[in-house]
Every structure is written in structure tokens, then in C-alpha cells.
Amino acid sequence: MPSYFLTITQGLSMPVLYPSRIQRAILGIALLSGLIGLGGCTSRPDSAVLEPATIVQKNNDQVTVFAVTNRNQLGGHGGFGSEWASHLSYERYGFSVPESRKGSTIVYPTAKPDPSRQYVVTAREKLADQAFIDKITRSTEFNGTVAVFVHGYNYSYQEALFRTAQMAADANTIGLPILFSWPSAASVTGYVADRDAALYSRSELDRLLQALATAPKVKRVMVLGHSMGGFLTMEAVRQLKLQGHSDVLAKLEVVLAAPDIDVDVFRSQLRDIGRMRAPITLLVAKTDRALAVSSFIGGERLRVGLLDIDDPIVQKAAETEHVRIIDISSVESSDGLGHDRYAALARFEKQLSLAESRRENGTNGVGAFVFDTAGAVVASPFLLAGQLVRR
């Protein structure tokens, strides 16, 4: 059994020797529930936070977020659930950004919003699919690049939406971020259901990426897939390749943050996709405890997000597979698990720009690198990951 898993299973009263697949899943979910509890998670927001509020904001800091989802629509506050819808819904949101915010931590609005410390929805508009691309490309904030965020396991629609707004706010120079929210069960016990929902959503994400990439004014489509959203992203890109959409792939730049993908499955996906114009970037941390549990549930098979860049085999594989592997262990996590470090990357805009300025002529950015929050960034490829949350 891997040493990282022995650490988090110490103290269990029951022996865990050669568990069956079902026992492994139950135990893994129990461990993940315990870890999340130890991480100090606050109560989760309901769809009431999606209701636009009229507020007085001193700093006038605003961000716009577009959202696309294949979740079922609920009544009441017009939220979205965890059931699989047969169509896509499109929306545009305006957010006020709190001046007094701490890192990547999100404080959700209450019945009486406090815009000084809470993210608050100030505008909401439902869009038809035909108007969605037009709204984006006609915006004064549009600069030719669109950034799509694909959330991970155990996310509700509103949690994913506010996370997108937080990254856009922290980056400051982001253009028009787009959330793709697939029907996660938003439950710790929903890991298997979420895996099925992610697979179900391949064609919908494929459809969104095609619509964006084939719009004449869109020059680049950056995709950030987090955790299980990374698995969904790779499946959608693989599907685009198998369908022969080389024109779409030519505009894509893919970043996978803490990807919850079996290493051998990922290698198979890469074989089908082939070399992309921009190498796929992986943001990893071998101390990610959520992925350690996922690995255990999956039969103790290594997850891509846990790759150790100090391992010569991993370093060689990065070059062979034509990918960028960047260790972001130095970035602070807010979830207590080390699984949401990606959300804090936008704050390091200066370091990312410094990394690019140090780029050696002729490098293709393929290989294994380290991001140091103190500013000593090794290798320029990290700028690619940064650009996703900055633009």
C-alpha cells in the first residue's frame, strides 16, 4: 500500500487488508468525508445566492461570468440541480467583488449581503444558445481569448459559479470567463455518480468548445479542468480528435489542475489525441489528500494529480508524452486537503509574468517544473496556466 495512504488510514479500528472493490469505495468515501470535516468546510450555499441583490459597493470592483450547464433547472430561485438535462442552459452573471477578501476563500452572500467581504450576484441574464457567442464576442472585455472552467467532483452549480468569479476577480485582468457546469451530485458520497455524470457530459462540453472555437472572432480557447473535471476535459478533447475537428483542437490550450485521472488512462487519452499545438499542462502536488483517497477507491492506482516531479521516470515521461508537469505544492490550499490550490494561482500574476520574461529562446516548455510562490519560478510554461485564470 502506498505510504501516503498509510498515513491517512492510521487509527482505523478495522483491518484493511485486500478490501473488495465495494469495501474500498465505502472506506474511501468515509475517509474523504472525514478529511473534508477536518478541513473545516463551512455550510454549503443554496441557490438563493444566485438571486441578484441591489447593493452599495464602495470599491466598484465587478466581474462578469458566463455559464453553460447541462444540469436540470429547479424552481424557486432558478437554480440548477444534480439531475442530467437533455439540453444546455446559458446565462450571464454580474458579480460584485469584496475588497476585504482572504486568498481564494469565498464568503457567500447572506440575506443581508455585505459587499465588503462577500461575493454578491448583482445581475443575472438567461441567454439563448444563438445569442451566447454573440454576447461574448461583442463585449468590450473580449480580447480574442475565452477561458472555460470545468469544475470537479462534489460541486454544486452555485459553488462552481462563485469559484469562477473568485478566480476572475483575483486575476484582475481576466477577460470573459466561462463556466461549464456538469451535473455533479454535489455530495461526498456521490463519487461514482459523478464519474458517470462526467462521462455523460462529454458531448455537451464538446459542443461548447466547438461553438467557441469556430466563432471567427475567437482566436484562442483555454480550458481549465479541475479534478474530475480534468477527466471530463480530456474525454471531450479526445472526442474532438476522433471526430476529426482539427480546427477546434488548433485553438485549444488545456490546463488540468489536480487531475483525477488514472495514469494509464491518461496515457491512453494522450495516444488518441496526439500532439496538440500547445502542450497540455498538468498542475500537480503529491500532497493532495483528496486524490490520495481517489487513488485508493480506484484500486490504489496512481492519479495524474499526484505525480512526483522529482521522480526521473516522471521527468522523462513528461518529455516523451509532450506535456508540461508543474508542481504547485508551494501554493496555499484553503480546503484543508491540498486539492484546491489552483484557485489561488491568479494572485501570482507578477511571478507568472517574470517566468515568461526569463524564457529561453527556442524552448517548447515540455518537461517537469516547480512553481515557487516566493517568485523563483522555474520555467516559463507556467505562464500558460496563469493566463487561463488571468484572461
Task: Explain what you see.
Mean pLDDT is 82; it is low at 1-19, 353-362 and 376-391. This protein has a 10-stranded mixed β-sheet with strand order 3-2-1-5-4-6-7-8-9-10, with helices on both faces. It has one domain: 3-Layer(aba) Sandwich (Rossmann fold), CATH 3.40.50. Helix 12 links the parallel strand 9 (323-327) and strand 10. The chain has helices at residues 3-9, 21-38, 129-137, 157-171, 191-200, 202-213, 228-242, 246-249, 263-273, 289-297, 312-320, 349-357, 382-390, and strands spanning 62-73, 80-96, 120-127, 145-150, 176-181, 220-226, 252-257, 280-284, 323-327, 367-370. Helix 5 packs parallel to helix 7, helix 6 crosses helix 7 and helix 12 packs across helix 13 (382-390). It is 35% helix and 19% strand.
List the strand order in the largest sheet.
3-2-1-5-4-6-7-8-9-10
**Structural class, from secondary structure content?**
alpha/beta
Helices and strands, in order, run as: HHEEEHEHEHHEHHEHEHHEHEH
Number of strands: 10
Shape: globular
Continuous helix count: 13
* Number of domain units: 1
C-alpha end-to-end distance: 42 Å
Radius of gyration (Å): 20 Å
Strand content: 15-25%
Unreliably modeled segments:
1-19, 353-362, 376-391
Which CATH top level class fits? Alpha Beta
For the largest beta-sheet, the strand count, sense and barrel status come to: 10 strands, mixed
CATH fold annotation: Rossmann fold
Share of residues in helices? 25-40%
Mean pLDDT: 82
Instruction: Give the name of the CATH architecture.
Output: 3-Layer(aba) Sandwich
